[in-house]
Amino acid sequence: MRSRSTNQNRSFPPEEICRGNRAGKVATLTCYRRNPALLRKMSIEMLSSLRDDRVEIVSPDWSEQDIAGMRAALAEAELAADANEIPVGAVVVVAGETIATGHNRSITDNDPSAHAEIIALRGAALAQENYRLNAATLYVTLEPCVMCVGAIVQARVGRVVFGAYDDKAGALGSATDLSDSRALNHRFEINGGLLADESATLLKNFFRSRR
Ligand SMILES: [Zn+2]
Question: What is the CA(187)–ligand 1 centre distance, in A?
Fold first, then answer.
């Protein structure tokens, strides 16, 4: 059995990551960011120390605008698949309007930096004639990699909404978490897991068809 002091040292996920609700012996956690599988494990461990019997992980209520943004990003991902590129798509939305789109083009362009996010951010900066995109929300079907989080920070993107979690390369909490790195001096809102199954299925089907 763990000692009390050990439990007290364990920090509860901050509000921005998940919000907890408790009804009797059931604690409900709404995940805004972390991989629910990881959060579930962490939460059960933490909450069991608080003597809860059951933990339920629920999805946040996404806005219609968020769902529309991710649908548009998924359509971009399908364009990538059609071109035999890894199907990841992205769109940039400012004040409810899509100002740029992008999908992976690394093979087509012989460009290692041609990830969906980078292409969408380039387009958005050109459209705004400003490389700073503080008012923008970036929707992307897969958790961004290290390079793309770097670009997101350079562009000062206000909010990132991603679809599937990427255990192998995701840099917003899965493989690593750059969002609170001291080296990256820009904080932004992060919401993960929107239409995650659809994004993951696109990727799975793509890799299966190439085997
Ligand atoms: Zn990337």
Answer: 18
